[in-house]
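Sequence in, structure out. First:
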Amino acid sequence: MRNHCGAKRPACGARTEEKKERMELLIQRIKDNLNEELIRITVSNPRKAEEIKKYSLRPVLVKETLVFQMESYTKTQVFHENLDKDGVVRKMKEILPGYKQVQIQGASGDLTALINKKGKAAVRIAGRNQGGQKLPDKERLRHNRQKKYILQEGIPVPFLQDLGVMTAEGKIIQSKYDKFRQINRFLEFIEDVLPHLREDRQITILDFGCGKSYLTFAVYYYLKELRGRNIRIIGLDLKKDVIKTCSRLARQYGYDALHFYEGSIEEFEGVEKVDMVITLHACDTATDYALYKAVRWKADVILSVPCCQHELNRQLSADKLRPVSRYGILKERFAAMATDALRADLLEAVGYETQILEFIDMEHTPKNLLIRGIKRGGGSEKKWREAEDFCEAFGLRPSLKALLETERGQKI
């Protein structure tokens, strides 16, 4: 058999062998780049409506051992897992046939592979010798070996010193290193949502249940001192002594646009417009009231880390759920997941694009999920019906749904 140019086409068996060889070559390319000089590997453009839209892989050090952190992106969530070199290779062999594009970014060059529907990979390699893109060796090594925090160790930050996280020389106190990581992780979320916050006027940020205000001070310092944004932040908590201490520190640092007040989430009415609502570890239905207030204020951004989801645990009732509900710990975990899933869907129903993201590693706290909402407008009747159906199936009456029903029919 000949093609249109008159040349012989390879036989079917030969074509299959060639396809296999090209895929094996791509796997070998990936394997060759699994070292500390790797910048990132991205697998994207799923061939079908896959649940996972994209995979992203980068090297990290865990207890001085080089592993590769794989992030799996669905439409609304990001999942993380750490793999060794052999684990990455096995994973790539499993997923590559279902995706159209692979990109490898290395210190010396980029590789892009396009995979057709027959599983054949066409590879293009681009060097980094021109255009100043190549990282210097030491800089590249730091990129892989040391996490680049927004607040960096070695640079003294007054509020971190007074809160017992950092010494006067800028060294992180060993017992507070997890807190330091948590603060920086949260600032990464703040950095991500900056494009959704206005720059032509002062923006108001409200932190419900601010507690000792590690993160409240960090957000103010980052946005006001480091980024020069025109902001005011209000911290709210029920503990009078905590509010007194935080107010004193804010005055001490000259943070004149940072204010703390004693009060409950449900009753607070001190502002007419809020641009971003933060609620971190507000217990049980306090999170629901915070989300409801955010919707009422038409906040552009919501960042919420829920805590102690007891409400639905008390309500769960369904015969089909008995294999779960007869075990207390499983019932508790199911109720927590159901609570946050409903919160995310209900926010979607009233005009927010929501994601549930990992806040910090599970080993540090089980309360590690963050609900992020970005105001889009329009709402979704489908999401509201899905939430109603879910509640009916398991006999649930979540507070957020009841609160939002009062807003239904109005333009949110």
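Second:
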Amino acid sequence: MNRLKTYTLTGIVFVAVVGSLAHFVYGWSGQNPLAAPFFPVNESTWEHMKLVFFPALAYGLIMQSRLKNEYPCISSAVPAGILAGTFSIPVLFYTYTGILGFHTLILDIAVFILSVLITFAVIDTLTQSCRIHRGTGLYLAVLLTAAAFVLFSYNPPSMGLFAEPVNLSKKISEAFYPQSFR
């Protein structure tokens, strides 16, 4: 197995394990405000995006530093993979909850795992294909995303992405059926 495949498989395991544990760190820290930018502070979809973003960023930087001479295109592939995996969380979550009308823990976990796989599939594919030669704009997008995680951890906007999900079927029922019919 070549080094890229080894680092890719190791990265999948690393991000899956560290991201899973990261779900609990804010609570374990006694809700330390210094942990808030890096670990989910509530059950919103936005906060769950941190579970992929920060572990993938840490591992991706290590991966890039160790493989950049052998795979020069990894420098643009890493930020592309981090962004693809991170933003696949809301896409996958809202797609399945929109279809089913509710969310469930097992599918939420599947969304997380699939997002980790997307992260490293993009990194591996773009590293080998060299389709993206310059990652400057991608690194800027990663930096802006990290800044948004910091800012919105302390001051989340009043938008659905930043709110804790509710059972959509209950919400639909409340919208269309008067109280007397329930």
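Remark: The two ends are 60 Å apart (CA to CA).
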